[in-house]
Write a structure and sequence with these properties.
The complex is a heterodimer of chains A (107) and B (112). Chain A contains no helices and 11 strands. By secondary structure, chain A is mostly beta strands. The model of chain A has no long low-confidence stretch (mean pLDDT 85). Chain B is mostly beta strands and 112 residues long. Helices cover 0% and strands 51% of the residues of chain B. In chain B, strands 2, 4, 5, 6, 9, 10 and 11 form a 7-stranded mixed sheet that branches. In chain B, strands 1-3-8-7 form a 4-stranded antiparallel sheet, with no helix packed on it. The radius of gyration of chain B is 13 Å and the shape is globular. The relative contact order of chain B is 0.33. The mean pLDDT of chain B is 89. Classes of the chains: A mainly beta (107), B mainly beta (112).
Chain lengths: 107, 112
Amino acid sequence: AQRVTQPEKLLSVFKGAPVELKCNYSYSGSPELFWYVQYSRQRLQLLLRHISRESIKGFTADLNKGETSFHLKKPFAQEEDSAMYYCKETSGSRLTFGEGTQLTVNP
Amino acid sequence: NAGVTQTPKFRILKIGQSMTLQCAQDMNHNYMYWYRQDPGMGLKLIYYSVGAGITDKGEVPNGYNVSRSTTEDFPLRLELAAPSQTSVYFCASSLGVGLLTFFGQGTRLTVV
């Protein structure tokens, strides 16, 4: 079965510090990977996807097939980045979300 | 476009009561999903649908039923509410797998 692992449930950094939210997947084929963000009292929204290789709000994520990882990174965290982040993998007709990482950026 | 619309936003049910969570999307998406999000936990897939008339179980389908008679609507039914079903429920839709998924604002359900 597909598995998406986000090893850190909670992550706390100071404003201006680099941040990395880890995501590992188990699918051995060609996965489609995404990061979603949920700000307080808001709905989930797409942050970025690996196929577009984009940078959104300063975040980037690189697919590393050798390590089966799709870690989310930002060089300088901002207070407004505080949110719940979910890694998602799709294959076939199924989607699998990780458990989520609650990021807190302290002033 | 309204996107994905869920109703109600909040609901309190007594044990054994039944209710239907409504979900509608106006983007002509084939795929629709129901997730639950328990406190401190990730999203769990309850049911999903790949098109009108087609539904399939997700990870945690017990205690729920769905139907997909139209492309737009994907209601989730709780027949006999239990305290374990206290959660926040999210409906979502996408044009296809691997494509952008849109989420509703969520329904906070409490079963007492």
